[in-house]
Every structure is written in C-alpha cells, then in structure tokens.
Amino acid sequence: MTALQEKKQTPILHLTGGALSGMVACVALQPLDLIKTRLQQHRQDHLAFLKEAKNKGLKVAPQKSGLWRGTIPTIMRNVPGSALYFFALSEIRQIVSNSRSFWKPVMNNNKDHQRWENLFSGSTARGAVGYIMMPITVVKVRYESNLYNYTSLSQAFTSIVRTDGIRGLFAGYGATFIRDAPFAGIYLFFYEGFKSWANDYADSHQKPIANALVNLGSGVAAGMAATCTTQPFDMLKTRMQLKPVIYKNLLQSAKKVYLEEGIMGFFDGISVRLIRKPLNSAISWTIYEEVVRWYNRKDILLKEKL
C-alpha cells in the first residue's frame, strides 16, 4: 500500500515529509536549476531589455557567481512549497475520495477513477500552492539571473516592488499555473501507473523490488513525461519573470517567441530540465513516501506492543 493509499494521516506527517523531501531535492539539484534559467535567458538578444531596465535605474551588469547562487530563495520556496503541496494533496484526495459516489458511475473501472483522481488532485494542489509561493519564485528567478546585479534577497524584493509594484511579484503566474498544475497532475497520473505496473510485474515474476527503487524509477519516468509536456510554459514563465517589460502576458509572450525564435524557442533549457525535473520529483516523492512508510511501520509496532 502506497503513501497515497493510506488512510488519512496527521497533517504534521505530510508537512514534515514534504519539507524534508523539498530540502534534499532543491539543495542537490540547484546547479541544474540555475543553468536552466541562464539557458532560457540567453537565447534572445537582450539589448532592448537592458536599455529599458537602465532607464528604470536598475543595475544590469553581469555577475559572476557559483552554481549554488539562488539556493536560499530556492529553499525558501521549495521547503514550505513541498510541505504545503503534499499536505494539500492528501486533503484534496480525501475530499475527492469522499465524493466518489457522485461521479464513479461514469468510470469504467476502479483503476480509471484512481488515475483521474490523481490527475485532478495533483493539478489542484500544485496550482493553489504555486500561487501562494509565487512571490518567492519571482525573487528566486531574478536572483539566479545575471541580468540583475542583486546582492541580497531583500534588495531583489525591494527592487521588484519599486519598479513593477506588487503585481511584479506575481509576474508569469499564468504560465506558471499552466506549467505546474498539468505537470503535477500528469506526473501523479503516470507515477502511480508506473508504480502499479512495477509492483504487478514483481508479483507475477516473484521478483521483489525495493519500494524505494520502485518509487525512484517511477518518479524519473513520470517526470520525463510531464516535463516534455509542460516545457513551453516553463520557458514562457522564465521570460515573463525576467523581462516583464517585454513579455507582458502569456499570449503576447508566446506570439513573440514564435515569431522571433520559431518553435524551438519554446524548448530552451529542456535538456537541463529533463535531467533536473524528473530527478527532483523522483527524489521528493521517494523521500516523502519513505517518511510516511516509516511512520506507518512505527505506528504498527507501537500498537502491537500495547
């Protein structure tokens, strides 16, 4: 039985498991996240943007920094973000499960409704949490970029609010939502499917496979499928957050990229993202499920002693 199939657990368990998984994943993979941001930033000639930024009084000199630049805002986003996501996911799944009698007749079998529950629950949870964490996401992207000479997170935050207003802290949310919500839903859809297939294969061939290995492998495979599907929106999100003067909204940004860079422009940074995103999701889910499994084993042992 997987963590998602367990009866409802204490919220602290999901928050703790999510926070721990988010911390490990974001610190380990931060260099890939920074490289992806830089790749998506540099394809286009930025002279027009630099001129506009200078007119607004921003410092835009390139800045040398290590591959872990932006780790602090990444932790500030991913740790609470992962904790909130896994908590929200468990709550939404519980609500959907309780309302199953209303829509179950339209599904052909039990596996059908479980797959669509995963798709809906993952998308809803990620979309909501993404909005809450959006200001930190914008600060993180700007801080990682070398278009700005930010020396601290507080300076980045103050500069964004001063030049773009509060609205600037939510720049690119449309693209972020269209990227993250489907990614989470598609990921969970395939993740549970791959796990089910792996476990069925192990049972039919009488070859037991470690749960952590099944989770990790399923996570990587599901992450690759979801990453390819949502890549264009990830690129648009980065452009809109780095250059809100030029990329004003989702449709205008998509049209601009297509006219100036063609279809391939939407896939800037996909090579790095195909490495980072599946690993990030796989590590996060593996750690989360192991935390929940450890708690369940501990709970069972305590009950047996009573």
What does this protein look like?
With 306 residues, this protein is mainly alpha-helical. Helix content is 75%, strand content 0%. It has helices spanning 11-42, 47-55, 71-98, 100-103, 110-132, 134-144, 153-164, 173-204, 211-242, 250-261, 270-305.
Uncertain residue ranges = 1-7, 45-50, 58-64
Structural class: mainly alpha
Alpha-carbon distance between the two ends: 24 Å
- What's the main sheet like? none
- Give the overall pLDDT as a whole number: 81
Question: Would you summarize the structure shown here?
Answer:
Its main location: mitochondrion. With 306 residues, the chain is mostly helical.
Fold topology:
Layout: H1 11-42, H2 47-55, H3 71-98, H4 100-103, H5 110-132, H6 134-144, H7 153-164, H8 173-204, H9 211-242, H10 250-261, H11 270-305
Helix pairs in contact: 1-3, 1-11, 3-5, 3-6, 5-8, 6-7, 8-9, 9-10, 9-11
Organism: Rhizopus delemar
Membrane topology: Multi-pass membrane protein
Solcar repeats: 9-95, 113-197, 210-294
Summary tags:
disordered N terminus, 306 residues, mainly alpha
